[in-house]
Amino acid sequence: MRFFIALEIPNENKAAFQAIQDRLHTLIPQARLTNLGKIHLTLAFVGEQPEELKKELIEVISSSVQDIPPFEVTPAYIDGFPSIHEPQVLWVGTKGDIDKILIIARRITEGLEDLNLPIDERRFIPHITIAKFNNHFQLNRELEDDLDKIMGATFDPIKISSIKLFESAPQNGLHKHRVLAEIKLASEYPENIYLS
């Protein structure tokens, strides 16, 4: 199974991301927009592993969130990988309780290392991917200013109350995401883990 661990964006926040993507599509029609049903904030990409690893991954997530209560982050800016000037990916960064995301991600990484799983050595940057480019693309200063204006709106906070373990399964040339487990924040008890 192809596993990843992420914060799912609640349905009540998806209209805001739809509005961001609508404006983005007007400015940069060649951008390939992320399916709204799949937007999330990845904490760790585990990759292809045996199905039996699911139980251990749930344990890693559970221990990573034990003392962390639900929190909020708010969409704040647009950036890109590898850079905003020549992006292959455009993403929304957030403000708010970012420290909690960083703590959870670090603990998850340490848990994956304990399982001898490969980890991403790059610096973790919390982000929500909103678009990708199939070909080389360069942003000029005017477009960068336009992206800043998109994020000038007031956004409702994103309430984070759980971490989810996902499977990413190939389907018709794309990948379909399926929730395998939901672990509530500050969970110390098995009843706070929901399996699908």
From TrEMBL:
Keywords: Hydrolase, Ligase. Coiled coil: none annotated. This is RNA 2',3'-cyclic phosphodiesterase. It catalyses: a 3'-end 2',3'-cyclophospho-ribonucleotide-RNA + H2O = a 3'-end 2'-phospho-ribonucleotide-RNA + H(+). It comes from the Bacteria. It is an enzyme of class 3 (hydrolase). Pfam families: 2_5_RNA_ligase2 (PF13563). The keyword Hydrolase applies.
